Amino acid sequence: MYLNKTIGIVVPAYNEENLISRVITTIPGFVDYIVVVDDCSNDNTTQIATKFQLETPDRIILIEHTSNQGVGGAIASGYKWCRDHAVDVVAVMAGDAQMNPDDLPGLLDPVVNNVVDYAKGNRLFTGDAWGQIPKIRYMGNAALSMLTKISSGYWHIADSQCGYTAINSKALHTINWDEMHKKYGQPNDLLVRLNIFNFRVQDVPVQPIYGIGENSGINPILIIPHMLWLVSRLFIKRMWQKYVIRDFHPLIFFYVLAFALLMVSIPLTINLVWRWLITGNLSSINTLTLMFTAISGMQSLFFAMWFDMEYNKDLK
Question: Rounded to whole angstroms, how far apart are CA atoms 242 and 16?
Fold first, then answer.
């Protein structure tokens, strides 16, 4: 136990035979349950986890997927086990050993002490993060974090893709884990779901760990369009669920107006550039119209964002 709370650790693992032992053996002793979720690995991950499970069956639980569901699906399976076994606080530590066990108390403290409902690791602003994290990952995470701020409503949260987290029992029982995104965008999806229910979320600095033999199955070229589509869909979902269904807010009108005006600005810009290339002149009426739609659209967008920030400022 940790400060009189039962603690569970969900360890999603897929083809982690080289590092799964390191993860399990370095988890602090105050953790009550280690829920290893093997996501249909085709190496020796299951056999290694089974060996540990047989040694301490009351502490280590092994869940085996019969088909690969993705990291989100593995986390959901672990969450559901902890929920059904009345675990007070549940953290996630991936099976690739990229999460420092020494950072675990820092994640648990705000949740255990009921300061927040969900604590999320932030690797981007810790020490020499720029020098430790591969540059393409750092820049990609920073860009996705900015988009996730808009889609989730947690404007104070950075490093949206960090999976080192801790969640309390209330949130664990509220979220429908069967509906959560099962692939790479799981952290983004979960933040949106937490915001819809007004759960408090906090950033906690954690150490980035790279170059220990971990393998990334993420193809940046393929993941970019997937993530852009996902955060756009999540944004619409949150707007509808939070500001229309649950509690109406006029910021919806500002977002709709901004979208309409900025969409109109695109053909106006194309038409203006085409006429300038053909005739060498800029039409006054076209230029003024474009200026009006673009400026009004940006103003409406910024007003909507400001309203959203104000509405969610207490969720931290």
Answer: 39
